[in-house]
Amino acid sequence: MPKVVQFHELGGPEVLKIEEWEAPALQEGEVLLDIAAFALNRADILFFQGLHYTLPSMPSRLGSEASGTILSVGEGVDRFSVGDKVSTIPFANARYGVHGEQAVMHQDFLARWPENLSAVEATSIWMQYLTAYYPIVEIGEAREGDFVLVTAASSSAGLGAIEIARDTGASVIATTRSGTKSDAILSAGAHHVIATEKEDVADRVMEISGGKGVRVVYDAVGGSLYDRYLDALAEDARIILYGLLDDEPTKIDVVKMVRKNSIMHPYSMFNEVRHPARLERGMAYILERLEDGRFKPRINDQIFSMDNAVEAYRYMLGGEQIGKIVVQAGG
Predict the structure, then answer these.
(1) Burial degree of 37 (CB within 10 A; 0-12, 13-18, 19+)
(2) What pLDDT, on a 0 to 100 scale, did the predictor assign at position 331?
(3) SS3 per-residue string spanning 50-94
(4) Which residues contact 68 (CB under 8 A, 6 or more apart)?
(5) Residue 217 confidence (pLDDT)
(6) What is the rounded CA–CA span in Å between residue 65 and residue 87?
(7) In which domain, by residue range, is 78 found?
(8) Residue 285 included in any domain
(9) Among residues 62, 100, 135, 305, which one has the fewest Cβ atoms lying within 10 Å of its Cβ?
(10) Which domain CATH number covers 27?
């Protein structure tokens, strides 16, 4: 029987178990996948901790990113066939979880696996690129001449944002805490890197931008970091807050925001992809750039095996990764 990652109670990585799993009968629109690789996201950790807005039903599987081959299809599946190679599109639905050797998935959450990508790469595209696409391209409308600030830039979402911001013609200012990852972030395409534990963020942004400031902020941190870049906003700035890595709450400074006619946009990618037209736009944008080589997903150097899958979650909590953390589940 295939092995999957499941949990029977809420908690830390210690609640995760690698267990045998028998696929249920497929419902309308569902397919059974043979998983080649799956990728981790911080939302997965929030899910098994009980802190995600989607709550699990025990025992629960987890994970929304995987690549694999369709083994069987249920009634009403009209977009895919047995043998198709696919990647899952991130979703917020507690019924499905793809971390394991097999998974059931609805066809609405599937996309063709780009032929020029490996299994490890194919599982690493949709969360990082879709998460960044809407804030930078559609909400922030970044363009040539803009400066875009990308916080926590060594994460997969941060690295994807660097590629997308560069693609718009904007200049990318990335942040990282200690500076130990600066070279890797620069090699990923950032024009400048600020080490937030060592440098004054607003002063450095204004120095780099020649006093212009940043017009789009793609912020995974919030809290105290928000206060540190607020004096370096450009006119009509858009702050897209998509994460809360800082333990402190993000307190909006209305006066400073008004001075720059700026907007704070609390953001979740799931609020975008539930609209078919928006999802289609985002996918088309990303696929075009994956196929012509402008985008290339960056994978963390350490790839885990299925037997060591629980260690992958512990590794993510340590925060040492650069790029997507992937588990190779099959051949």
Answers:
(1) buried
(2) 57
(3) CCCCCCCCCCEECCCEEEEEEEEECCCCCCCCCCCEEEECCCCCC
(4) 33, 34, 35, 36, 37, 85, 86, 103, 119, 329, 330
(5) 98
(6) 7
(7) 3-124+299-328
(8) no
(9) 305
(10) 3.90.180.10
Strand partners for 147? 171
Question: How many Cβ atoms are within 10 Å of 93's Cβ, its own excluded?
Answer: 13
Give backbone dihedrals phi and psi of 31, rounded to 5 degrees, phi first. Answer: -130, 160
Tokens at 79, concatenated: 């977009």
CA–CA dist 126, 140 (Å, integer): 19
What is the Cα–Cα distance from 326 to 39, expressed in whole angstroms? 4
Q: Could you tell me which of 225, 227, 283 has the C-alpha nearest to residue 253?
A: 227
Q: What angle do CA 157, 298, 79 make, to 5 degrees?
A: 80
- Do 138 and 257 fall within a single domain? yes
The one-letter amino acid at 303: I
Q: Using CB atoms within 10 A of its CB, is residue 53 exposed (0-12), middle (13-18) or buried (19+)?
A: exposed
Using DSSP bridges, classify how beta strands 147-150 and 214-219 pair: parallel, antiparallel or unpaired.
Answer: parallel
> What stretch of H or E contains 236?
strand 233-241
Cβ atoms of 17 and 100 closer than 8 Å: no
Residue type, 41: N
Determine the average pLDDT of the residues in 202-215: 97
Helix axes 126-133, 156-167, angle to 10 degrees: 50
> What is the model's pLDDT at position 215?
97
Does the pTM exceed 0.85?
Answer: yes
First to last CA, the chain: 16
pLDDT bin (cut points 50, 70, 90) of residue 107 is: very high
d(CA 195, CA 201): 8
- Model confidence at 78, pLDDT cuts 50, 70, 90, reads very high
Q: Please check whether residues 134 and 155 belong to one and the same domain.
A: yes
Q: Are residues 176 and 252 in the same domain?
A: yes
Mean pLDDT over all residues of the chain? 92
CB 12 within 8 A of CB 49: yes
The total number of residues shown for the chain amounts to: 331
Q: Tell me: the pLDDT tens digits for 179-191?
A: 888 999 999 999 9
Let me know: does 235 contact 145? Beta carbons within 8 Å.
no
